[in-house]
What we know:
This protein is mainly alpha-helical. Helix content is 38%, strand content 5%. The protein has two domains: 42-202, Orthogonal Bundle (Cytochrome Bc1 Complex, Chain D, domain 2); 215-335, Cytochrome Bc1 Complex, Chain D, domain 2. The chain has helices spanning 2-5, 7-36, 48-59, 117-120, 124-132, 181-192, 228-235, 237-240, 258-261, 266-274, 288-291, 296-307, 319-335, and strands spanning 150-153, 176-179, 215-218, 223-226. The strands form two sheets. A two-stranded antiparallel sheet has the order 1-2. It has a two-stranded antiparallel sheet with strand order 3-4. Helix 3 crosses helix 6 (181-192), helix 5 (124-132) packs across helix 6 (181-192) and helix 7 crosses helix 12 (296-307). The N and C termini lie far apart (85 Å).
Amino acid sequence: MDFFDNHKKLFRSAFALFVGLTLIVAILPAINNQRDNAPLPGSSPLTKDEHAGKKSFIANGCVACHTQQVRNVDMDNVWGDRPGIPADYAHIEREDFWRNTATLMGTERTGPDLTNVGKRQPSMAWNLLHLYQPRAVVENSIMPAYPWLFKTKKSADSTDILVNVPDKYRKGVKGDIVATQEALDLVAYLQSLKQTPLPTGKKPMEFLYKKEIPKTASTGGKESLPDGQKLYASNCQACHQANGEGLKGAFPSLIGSKVVLDDDIELFVDIIMNGYNAREEYAVMNAVGTDNNLTPEEVTAIINHERTSWGNDAEPVTLEEVKKIMDFLKLTTSKE
Length: 336
């Protein structure tokens, strides 16, 4: 009983127990993790702007709704190319001496997982508009808007990044809506979130699913191509919408588009593979085909879907036409 009556012994024992448990539960496992896991070849730490964006991600509570982890289960196949492994998080460091934000893996998936969002949605214009007003690009989104990350000017300066907001979502705002540095940093962080390809080219484990794109006959049954509608949904729909109408002031409509319906499809293929920046009233389109490693079969299927949907009635194109143009574009690009 003398032990319990002596406050010095009690305090010292409690302190020793606390230190021992901290060592066993926290410090030794952390040291083992650092020893056993190293950043993957090809991965890189965050840049200054991306790190500032991570701080904004934390400050705005994004981790409350978005995870950054791809599990080896069926439902996670849409979030990454492979299951996450410890080495994916080896580059993550403390914010400062006092704060350790760990991995921001999250526990709630109220919104989409962001592990590979930099690959799924690399367009800066889309991301900025999504932050300003999520419903402008995803009609049924429950994500809150972040208008304080933007400012309104009577006339944007040449150095400003203009956000093309459709009139429906301006709510009386007059003038040009431009992104603040915090918004640009946050988008830079989001665009940095990409799974690093494994160096061996082999997955550490097989997913519980296999990615299969249903085949569908086209061009009079002479060719078997992937499902163009599904490919359009995963590669193009975020900007051009499911109905092909795009968004006024942000992304062009594909309905009746000369590029889509023209018999000469060279420009069409070039836009898919290398992006487009020829019209000031629309956001710059990223190189979807190159970024997503689309094959000639997939590009052909997307083109035929767009040429024959939403009232468009152009003749389907052949795989041979598309492949010839893609080979020419690769040859041209390699000489530049």
